[in-house]
Amino acid sequence: MASETVVAREDRFDWFCETVSSDVMPVMLSTRHTADFRAKFTDLDLGSVRLSALKCSPVLSRRTSAHVRRGDPEHVQLALIAQGAFRISQRGSESMIAGGLVLTDTSRPSEGASAGGPGEAIVLQIPRPALPLRPNRVDRLLAQNISADKGSGAVLADFLKTLLTHGPRCRPEELRGMGAVALDLATACLAQQLGDPGEAPAEARAQETRQRIHRFIENNLGDPVLTPQAIADRHNLSLRSLHALFAGQDLSVAARIRENRLERARADLARGDLSGQPVQTIAARWGFSSATAFSRAFREAYGITPTEHRASALHA
Predict the structure, then answer these.
(1) Phi/psi of residue 86, each to 5°?
(2) Is the predicted pLDDT of residue 277 greater than 90, yes or no?
(3) Helix, strand or coil, per DSSP, at residue 39
(4) CB–CB of 80/186 below 8 Å?
(5) Rounded to the nearest 10 degrees, what angle do helices 291-302 and 306-314 cross at?
(6) How far apart are CA 226 and CA 221, in angstroms?
(7) pLDDT of residue 9
(8) Of 193, 204, 54, whose CA–CA distance to 130 is shortest?
(9) Rounded distance, CA 177 to CA 46, Å?
(10) HSE on the CB side for 160, CA within 13 Å?
(11) pLDDT band at 107 (very low <50, low <70, confident <90, very high)
(12) Cα–Cα distance between 101 and 64 in angstroms, integer?
């Protein structure tokens, strides 16, 4: 389930500190902005893992040995610094993170501080036993800057942001499924950072590859030659391997391309600012080279023609 709290009053800063200490872990928070302190805290129960997002005025965070003794969820926390910059230190390492990922361990003292303005962190809380990587190797990554601009780090970062946006409206069983995906992507990302992607379990590697392919499809929907073969070639896979990768998923690769194209075209047909554009122009924008094929696919998916949908949407 999802919970969300917004704090925007001076007399609530202490309450905010108590909320973080009880819902995440015991920690001391301080700020120079008590007079105009603002914060938003979101928590998603994903079953095997949890997702917490904190967006707030600049704060200093300190977790001492006493805090660890008082309460330790025995998690590793993989945080995406989505806004601002944050300095984090733990186990003798210190990094300044802005737009990247950083790993910390709740069983060790740590210190962090916002650098400058307000910050936002999206934190994936992973129970130690749930992370299928050797602890002594994972410890090497603590308080290190992990890039979220490319590769598995970018895939994970995109997924966490999407999950934070849409997760509060998901059903509990959907959230549990997303938790399994998040854990697989985090595992693949950390294994990649350790220089041994093969250390991640096979399903974690497969999940990371699927997410990378999903992202590629989204970015290339307008290309009329976006086909399963083109996707397989781009990702150094055989066509057979690509189909095997998506076996058991809700949609095949071809079906996902078709569904995403139809959704984009359907949304554009409902836009008033595009009402002067021919249906075929919109269809072509999203990779449909044949007006007849587009109309047939649209009717099969939505039960009405593109023209009927446009008329209904624009006169609603």
Answers:
(1) -140, 130
(2) yes
(3) strand
(4) no
(5) 60
(6) 7
(7) 38
(8) 204
(9) 8
(10) 33
(11) very high
(12) 22
Identify whether the C-beta of residue 57 lies closer than 8 Å to the C-beta of residue 33: yes
Maximum separation of any 2 CA atoms in the chain, in Å: 69
Per-residue pLDDT, 293: 93
The Cα–Cα gap between 226 and 287 comes to 8
Phi/psi of residue 58, each to 5°? -55, 135
Question: How confident is the model over 257-269, as pLDDT tens digits?
Answer: 999 999 999 999 9
Give per-residue burial for 181-196: e unless 16+ CB within 10 Å, then b: bbbbbbbbbbbbbbee
pLDDT for 31: 87
Instruction: Write the CB contacts of 2 (distance below 8 Å, at least 6 apart in sequence).
Output: 42, 43, 44, 45, 167, 168, 170, 175
pLDDT digits (tens, 9 = 90+) for 207-216: 888 888 988 9
As a whole number of angstroms, the distance between CA 68 and CA 137 comes to 22
Single-letter amino acid code for the residue at 264: R
Tell how far CA 145 is from the center of its chain.
Answer: 18
149/146 Cα distance (integer angstroms): 9
Find all residues with CB under 8 Å of 103, minimum gap 6, and list them.
76, 77, 78, 79, 138, 141, 142, 143, 144, 146, 190
